[in-house]
Write a structure and sequence with these properties.
By secondary structure, the chain is an alpha+beta fold. The protein has a single domain, classed as Alpha-Beta Complex (Inorganic Pyrophosphatase), CATH 3.90.80.10. A hairpin with a 5-residue loop joins strand 2 and strand 3. InterPro entries: Pyrophosphatase, Pyrophosphatase_sf.
Amino acid sequence: MSMIDLKDVAPRNESGTVNVFVETPKGSRHKYDIDDHGLVRIAIELPEGVTFPCSFGFVPNTIAPDGDALDIVLITAGEVPARSLIEARLIGVLKMENDEGGEMKRNDRVVAVATMSRVFSEIKELEQMHSGFAWDIEEFFKTYNEMIERPFEVVGRGDAAEAHRMLEEAEAAA
């Protein structure tokens, strides 16, 4: 079985959509990481009753200010498996900080909608999501960081234009 090398995956498509590599699927009680060999590793098990509200992943061949690939919260109507590559449209940003080595640092999450989604096909901006959507995701991150005993703070939200600027900066940094 041959494996796709993510170094060969473009961050962005000609249509302006992005490629999102899913690490942790929606509904999972486990946070997954992809190791240097492309294997899925369980990093954390969440408490009973706590699951990932959306799929989480990254845009390949990007480097965000935190030194990792650009993080993505991926909105789909259902679950997708870990290691899926999903074409998506950026709709906004959840601005967050968490402790990194004793210092609070930005660790924003760009929010994107899977382009194949019929349920969310009309969503172009984060504010168009159902009332409370962004708050729900922020609360999940608060719970997640509390569970791993890491200081965390929500610092704001951004629109699709800001998400695209973040993508451009992360592409340039790679």
